[in-house]
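Hi R.,

Here's the chain you asked about this morning:
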Amino acid sequence: MNEFVLLYRGDKNAFAAWPENRPQQEIDAIRKRWRAWFDRLAAEGALKTIGVPLQYSGKHVVSNGTITDGPFAEGKEIVGGFSVVNASTIEEAAKLAAGCPIIAFGGAVEVRPLQPM
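And here is the predicted structure, written out as tokens:
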């Protein structure tokens, strides 16, 4: 088995973590969909690390030492969180990612192999 990171991408409407955009009942339903998907991956033995949501602001640090604010929630391709899965191939990992609830809300999942150090 190989390890792959699933990076959850989208604009702020793709993430249920923005309560001001959705009624609480809808947020709870979305979170339930995420939990069901994670539970299915775990039952299949594919979920290595559930991961965590990321804050929507931070800092950029570049090679010349400049530090700036960002990324910002206005971006269309926010990385909102990640998980790590086990799969035989990247194609298999992509099939696992295809069930991610974020896709139904206009988001996307980037699937990347983890390189052993």
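One quick note: The longest strand covers residues 78-87.

Cheers,
M.
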